[in-house]
Amino acid sequence: MHIKANIPEMLSRLLAQEDTDGDKKITIEDQGPKAFEVALYGDDKTSLLAGDEGTKAYTIQGTYHLSNLLQELALEHAKGNTEALIPLWKIEEAPTARINRMIRDYFWDDLTRTIDKEGLSRILTDSKAQGSKQRLYVPKTDSQGVAYYTSLQSKFPNLEVVILPKVISPDYVKSINEKAGILALGLEDGKGIPFVVPGGRFNEMYGWDSYFEGIGLLLDNRVDLAKAMIDNFCYQIEHYGKILNANRSYYLTRTQPPFLSSFIVETYQKDPSLGTEWLARVTKTAIKEYETVWMQAPRLTANGLNRYYAQGIGVPPETETGHFNEHLLAFAKNENCSVQELIARFQSGAFQSADLDSYFTHDRSLRESGHDTSWRLDNVCADLNVVDLNSLLYKYETDFSYLTKTYFENTFEGKTSQDWDARAQQRKSLINELLWNEEAGQYFDYAFAKAQQTHFQSASNYFPLWAGLCSQEQASRMKDALLSQLKEQGGIAGSSRFMNAQVPEGAVQRQWDYPNGWAPHQMMIWQGLMRYGFTTETQELVYRWLWMITCNAVDYNGVIPEKYDVVSASHKVFAEYGNVGTEFDYITTSGFGWMNASYQLGLSLLSPRLRTQLDQLIHPEELFV
Predict the structure, then answer these.
(1) Three-state DSSP class for 35?
(2) 504-522 tens-digit pLDDT
């Protein structure tokens, strides 16, 4: 059955009747009748186009079905169609099937970008562009890129191509912060190698976001995009010296959590036809990142473990105006000036403070960790051997062992699998010695100068489950601590209620802490619990997360945002930076990168029985005691 729609007329009539708050969406907050009459036609499309044979009146009812109709009308309108046949099944599609289909058929493509003649306009003209010039920074070491992008300047009147120096110092990066721009990525056959962006204002390729997006891409059989993003990561390592926080000029001194080895392994396992030549090239580059970025000072500490340590000078330029006011107020009072005046003097070098330099080193390092921001890392990040980073580097070492043994006859770049196993075992011993807490049954970040653990209850404490670092007994203890401290209505919170109670009254709500939950934490914890055989617990946590996403999508016009409040199970998050992905008209055609991936991964893990109950939106408390 089909709805034959005059797109402009039906769109206007539907909004007039059902969108009572005028936000160009149909949600549970609208006060319309929640019933809209259409003419329904049979399945003979030829006769439908010729006339009105076989029509009957039909009422579309309820917020979910009405918002689906609005979305389908919007998709047709975006194609330039004035009339269309809309299948009824798309309007009354089961929620999980619809979200899964929208991600697979629309969201990934809408989030894909290229930095080339065809893609420059979209990548350069966003909310972060500064001034009249659209700047594209190209590494001097990329002669192909320099020639290609320089040739485009005449075709883009506002484009300014800037060639980066061979040596990119923190002083240089600070000098171009007022002239921010996009950093070039790889070219292949005269075209930009594509990549997937998170969405919304995040219109560039991010570090750890890309790996989690890659999980979703591989599940949806988009090996082409997963491979392309690995190739772009390798370009960054070769030409910028690291995988960047994101490919914008002010991120040149900062990396993000290392997931490249996992991305390579999972992509090659999905499609071995990529070939061992490609595998050898990208593995060699991943080893280079491991050796030159992570296993060197300042990110390698004296005890043999690692820390996040982002270099840079001054105030991180990507932050919102006023973000640091709370901390800077005391300095401003001491200098008898306003916060704005203090920042101007600090940036120019007229005001110097070792304490303030240290604070911003910790802040940049916190952003390098991907957890921007959290009370766990505030003003202390660079002094910590964190659980998350050291678990990821253990995974690098075991991945390199696996790749060397499985695909390269046990010798690659001068090392055997036994060499990598020895490094992994050494790291594992140090992690268990310094970060494991037997009494608490979990790992904690380690303040190496003070030689003590932080005892901060965080979702990041459970990365060892994902990395396969802990013993079965440790995993069992961790599972119990996880469920008792971090499990909430909609999944795993970034930190515990107990840690939230320690935050000073009136302090800023940090977005990576309680009550918020994030896709990468859920995905890693699911996979970690599955690794150790905790299937029942995994199913519950997957269900809780998908139930929350599904309910919000059903009630709020298909919204799939950056993060959720897992305590209230809502996308209405009240914390710094807001919630990307909630602002759209009629339909979201992109969702949010790693949230999309978490949904696809969750569906792949969820049992058929629970998926049926999920489509019925049955509350988790009715299913799990």
Answers:
(1) strand
(2) 888 888 999 999 999 999 9
What are the structure tokens assigned to 95, written together?
A: 């929620």
Q: Cα–Cα distance between 388 and 87 in angstroms, integer?
A: 47
Q: State the pLDDT at residue 50.
A: 47
- Confirm if 591 and 560 have CB atoms less than 8 A apart: yes
Contacts of 596 (CB under 8 A, 6+ apart): 103, 107, 108, 213, 216, 560
Question: Is 72 annotated in the active site?
Answer: no
107-129 exposure pattern, b = at least 16 Cβ within 10 A, e = fewer: bbeebbbbbbbebbeebbeeebb
Q: Domain residue spans in the chain?
A: 2-93, 320-361, 486-622
Check 220, 372, 388, 513 and give the catalytic one. Answer: 372
Q: How far apart are CA 500 and CA 457, in angstroms?
A: 10
**Helix H or strand E encompassing 517:** strand 516-517
Residues of the chain with pLDDT under 50: 46-50
Counting every residue written for the chain, the total comes to: 625
**Six token digits for residue 56:** 């009957």
By the 10 Å C-beta count (0-12 exposed, 13-18 middle, 19+ buried), 334 is classed as exposed
Task: Compute the distance between CA of residue 106 and CA of residue 24 in angstroms, rounded to an integer.
Answer: 20
Neighbours of 381 (CB within 10 A): 27
User: What SS3 class is residue 39?
Assistant: strand
pTM metric for this prediction: 0.97
Condensed to tens digits (0 to 9), the pLDDT of residues 470-505 reads 999 999 999 999 999 999 999 999 999 999 999 988
DSSP for 132-179? S-EEEEEETT-HHHHHHHHHHTTTSTTEEEEEEPSS--HHHHHHTGGG
Instruction: Identify any residues that bridge with 3 across adjacent strands, giving them in sequence order.
Output: 40, 86
Catalytic residue among 19, 142, 289, 562: 562
Residue 327 is given by DSSP the state H
Identify the sign of the CA torsion 554, 524, 515, 382.
negative
Q: Is 372 a catalytic residue?
A: yes
Instruction: Enter the DSSP assignment of 59.
Output: E
Looking at 170-324, list the stretches that DSSP marks H as alpha helix, in order from N- to C-terminal side. Answer: 170-175, 207-219, 223-240, 260-270, 276-289
At residue 112, the pLDDT reads 98
pLDDT tens-digit series, residues 158-195: 999 999 999 999 999 999 999 999 999 999 999 999 99
- Do 28 and 83 contact (CB within 8 A), yes or no? no
Residues 6+ apart with CB under 8 A from 601: 215, 216, 219, 523, 526
DSSP-derived pairing of the beta strands 134-139 and 182-183: parallel
CB 24 within 8 A of CB 15: yes
| 334 DSSP 8-state letter | H
